[in-house]
Amino acid sequence: MSSLPLDLLRSRGGFSRDTRFSPMLARASTAAAPDPVVEAYERGFAEGSAHAMEAALLAEREREAQRGAIELAFAQFDEHSEAELRERLRQTVLALCEATIMPVAIDPEGLAARVEKATGMLQRAHDERRVLLNPEDLALVRDRLPEGLAVEAEPTVERGGLRIETADGGIEDGPAQWRRILAEAFREC
C-alpha cells in the first residue's frame, strides 16, 4: 500500500488553514476607517427624524389644546350665552333691514303712494286732514300728490315718514314704525 503514515495525519486532526494562502479567511487586524460621508448622512438622517418627530408632537399638542378650548366653549355655552347670541343676531338682522328700509322710505313714488293710501283711509268728507311730511320729502313729492290735499312741512317727521292728523286722531307711517314692527316680530322669534 502506501508508505504515508496515515495514522500520523489522523492524530493531528487533519488539515489546517494557512492564512498565507487564504487572505479572505484571515482576520482583519485593523478596523476599516469610517467613511465621513456615510457618517454625515446617518447623523443628518437621525437629526432630521428627531426634528420631524418633535414638530409632529408639538403640532398634535396644539391641535389637542384647540380641541380642548372648543369643547370648553361648548360646555360653557349656557342659556345666558344663547340669549346673548340670539340678541346679537336680532340686532344684526335689524341693522340689515335698516339698510334696506331707508331707500324704500324716501322713494318719491312710493312715498306719494303711501300718502294717497293713508289719506284714503280717512274718507269722511267733514274730516279736516293735515298731511305732515319731512321738508326734504315734501320737496320730492309735492308735484305727485293729489290736488286739494293739505300738505305741510314738519321737521319732526322722520325722512321717509308721514303723519296725517284729523280732529279724531291720526295715522303715522314711516321707517320708525317699520323698525318697531320688525323689532317686535324678531322678539317673538
From TrEMBL:
Needed for flagellar regrowth and assembly. GO terms for biological process: bacterial-type flagellum organization; protein transport. Residues 79-172 form the Flagellar assembly protein FliH/Type III secretion system HrpE domain. Belongs to the FliH family. This is Flagellar assembly protein FliH. GO terms for cellular component: cytosol. It comes from the Bacteria. It holds the Pfam family FliH. Keywords: Bacterial flagellum biogenesis, Bacterial flagellum protein export, Protein transport, Transport. PANTHER family: FLAGELLAR ASSEMBLY PROTEIN FLIH (PTHR34982:SF1), YOP PROTEINS TRANSLOCATION PROTEIN L (PTHR34982).
